[in-house]
Amino acid sequence: MALLPPARPSISHRLVVYSVAGLATLCSPAAFADSGAGASDTPAAGVAGLAAMPLEALMQVTIVSTASRFDQSVTDAPAAVVVLTADDIREFGWRTLADALASLPGLYVTNDRSYEYLGSRGFQRPGDYNSRFLLLIDGMRTNDGVYGQAPIGTDFPLDMDLVKRIEYVPGPGSAIYGANALFGVINVITKTGSDLAGAEAAVAAGSFGEKKARASYAWHGAHGADILLSATSYGRSGQDLYYPAFDTPDQNHGVANRLDYDRSQDFLAKAAYGDFRLGFMHGNRTKGIPDAPYGAVFNAPFSVTDTHSYLDLSYQHLLSDGVTLASQVYWGRYDYRMPSVYGPQPYVANVDGSHALWYGADVHATISSIGKHRIVIGTDFTRDARLDQYNYNVAPYSQMLDDHHSGNRAGVYLEDELTLPANFTLNAGLRYDEQTASGGNLSPRIGLVYKLTPRDTFKLLYGQAYRAPNAYEMYYAVSGVDGQLKNTSLKAEHIATTELVYERAVTREGRATLSLFHYDARGLISATQDPSGLFIFRNVSRATARGVELAYEQRMASVRLRGSYSYQIAHDSDTGVALQNSPRHLGKLNVAAPLFADALITGLEVQCTSSRLAAVGEAAGFCLANLTLSSRRLIRGADVSFSVYNLTDKRYADPVGPGFTQETVTQQSRTFLFKAIYGF
Asked: Which domain holds residue 334?
């Protein structure tokens, strides 16, 4: 990992600070002393009903399940949990999971025009594959075994129209979920038949040939009977892009023609009856790659195809008063294929790919009948039946890599939420995992929650998490330019996090959260260069970060506001040098407000990111604005919206990984999207 000295604060840094200072003033208690209705994820009890509720009841309205595997209020959860709803997705025009996550405190997204990568609290090294976040869909793990990747861009195998809510739990989650949950757990909860209730069709069209069509059917009956079927097709032709690093006559003067396309097809099927739930999900995405990474020939055909398939069957039953049994069996498959062309002449067509296949089960019981305890005890097992990687030249055929592995992961976990005197609650969890790639790992978590008043809650949190080396890091070995050596002696990487959270009900409908955090990551697996010139992954890095996050949510009559500011300092623990792609400042604002007697909803989103170091130089700071206008009254029975992304047409770039010729990649210019959803 190439590191540079910390960059001098730029004008963009100061702009972010000033903007957030103004937001903090706007969101002060005095500003909203007389405000009305509830938070964006409040159940539909009506504004008048919420206004009549006592303050301590309002603090318990938002219920989450991801933090502890059982339902609890956001206030009681041992983390600074954030919830996004289907209304948020619609009103802000989020097209991908990455769009939604980028709005959350402390998170930021990097795009190299192949994949989108998620960073948290100053940590997102270029070239990582989101393997330090655990992504769940309806509680089912989706990270594959070859790369440990959490898909969040157009490779995410689910239409965002079908997302009911997103629960994000920052901090280490291995005490409950095992590997990969270093920086947080993301649980995407999908809609059911009762949420759609009938047939629905959706179409969208936008800039650079973007088109999408969806057809869904939903039904809900007695005894919990529920069915949802949905299919989506998406396509985007993209634009011609200019890359100064390739500006020579024999490389089309740096212009990549028709290589930024994106195509995907997604399918979702869900059924439920009584205590049983069955779900199947499939997504196939092909993305053109215009920036010729890994030594590929510029402006030659280059694409990547990702195929995800998931199947799960869950059962939840109340055995007796205070004892609930929950179980889940699941199956997953991930296929990756990347055809490309390499030089110098004579050019060689090459195909790189992998297959991952896994299955497993989880069984846990929740016990609330023992005094003031609420206990979760469980076990899970996953079999990575296929961890295959291959690479070959097409003509003449030459096998460069043909690697086959498998492995197991088994864990047992215990969590206890204990109600103590004087408004204290203790949440303690412990999990032990045994994994083929990393041996045994013990992951503890402890959280002390203190409710000083009905308005004020303090949380003192400590946790540890781990990530086992994946098959790509351990076994991938291909010679040649930008080639790689395998390293079977890799160990798991670990993180320890301490966090102090203060939550306050500023008004009846406003909630502020202040988080102070410190983390220490050790044994980080990093891509280094061998004396031979080839890359190899080694446990060579330690990183430390500290910072503060301030978040605020407020509803004023029909206006919803959510803002946050994050200040974070992340550096290499051994050298003291700042990490690459680590912004010091993040500022965010989301406002949804009605116009013309609620006939039109305006969703404005602003995100500011300070400068970040690249391998050489830095990527300048920037502020982006997105605007969505939506209405459910313009056309009878239809939900229509019009979105403008990158409203001011800001030119900005993201740092990219070591396989790229350029240090940063320019991001998307201003685009438009029109969308209509019609229910039958």
From this structure: 11-679
Task: Give the closest residue to 583 by CA, choosing from 561, 603, 599, 607.
Answer: 607
CB 513 within 8 A of CB 505: no
pLDDT computed for residue 294 by the predictor: 87
Residue 584 in domain: yes
Contacts of 422 (CB under 8 A, 6+ apart): none
Counting the structural domains of the chain, the total is: 1
Distance, CA of 170 to CA of 499 (rounded, Å)? 10
Cβ atoms within 10 Å, residue 153: 23
Model pLDDT, residue 481: 64
Q: Are strands 241-242 and 255-256 parallel, antiparallel or unpaired?
A: antiparallel
Helix or strand (DSSP H, E) at 519: strand 510-529
**pLDDT (tens digit, 9 = 90+) per residue, 5-45?**
333 334 334 433 333 333 333 333 333 333 333 333 333 33
Cα–Cα distances in Å, from 26 out to 39, 450, 592? 17, 28, 16
Phi, psi of 174 (to 5 degrees): -65, -25
375-423, pLDDT tens digit by residue?
Answer: 999 999 999 999 999 999 999 999 999 999 999 999 999 999 999 999 9
Distance in angstroms (rounded) separating the CA atoms of residues 454 and 657: 48
d(CA 590, CA 595): 16
Phi and psi (nearest 5°) for 134? -100, 120
Q: What are the beta bridge partners of residue 411?
A: 380, 433
> Which of 526, 528, 579, 594 lies closest to 131 in space, CA to CA?
526
Q: How far is CA 253 from the centre of its chain?
A: 36
Would residue 3 count as lying in a domain? Answer: no
Name residues of the chain where pLDDT drops below 70. Answer: 1-61, 481-482
Read off the DSSP letter of residue 9: P
Question: CATH no. for residue 542?
Answer: 2.40.170.20
Q: Residue 135: inside a domain, yes or no?
A: yes
By three-state DSSP, how is residue 59 classified? coil
480: DSSP letter: S
How far is CA 241 from each of CA 214, 217, 517, rounded to the nearest angstrom? 29, 39, 40
Distant-in-sequence, close-in-space partners of 396: CB < 8 Å, separation ≥ 6: none
Q: What are 42's two structure tokens?
A: 């409040």
Q: Is residue 172 part of a domain?
A: yes
pLDDT, residue 20, reads 37
- Cis, bond preceding 78 (omega within 30 deg of 0): no
